[in-house]
Design a protein that fits this description.
The chain is mainly alpha-helical. The chain is 79% helix and 2% strand. Keywords: Electron transport, Heme, Iron, Membrane, Metal-binding, Transmembrane, Transmembrane helix, Transport.
Amino acid sequence: MNVNGTSLDTVLRIGKLVLNGIFHLCVAGLTVYTIWLPITSYTWPFSWHVILCTLGILPLITESLIVFSKQNIWSQEIDRKQKHWIHVILIISIGGLLIFIGVGFEIYRIAVHTDPTVKHFSSPHSITGLIGIIFIINAMVCGVLAFNTQRIYKWNRKARPIYFKLIHNILGQAAYLLCLISFCLGHFIPWFVKNLSDASRITAMIVAIIVAIWSMICAWRSLFSKITFLRNV
């Protein structure tokens, strides 16, 4: 089928590339929006908590999901093996490390806080963030196993590679969603509420939802294909 001499497939491909470009702009804009306030209104050590955790989840871990998409602009010419290395080493490891350090700054801030009513992991933002970190750790462990499935399979024939990949996929998606929920809830803590307008914070949350949906489409497809494969075995 042609549309004025242009195939429908070409139109759809260009449309997906345009949407992918908009997606990256949303990620960049959301990142700058979130870290701008802690930079301009610097407060030790809270600012580092916001900056590092934001950079960890946006753009690093977000890009680790979109790297496998065929429509992703910057990874189209990279082969799948290299994408796995980018996913594991350059993105997940660095992103996870930044989140861990950022949370460490917040734990330290609360530990030395003069107000005894300020407790560790007592808000919805901190609770979802903590659960997200637990999922990240488990996803990383399972990811290492999934990366070495052939060696494990030679040792134990019951340990099929598809199982490790499926569990890694599920845990990774759960971790990402929980971290993004914590990220959105963070915009409603008193510090952000005091310094940012309601409209801008709600807009940021809507953009975060769009980013989450678009970045996880490829992961959802992968999960569906693995479940379908297991059902047909």
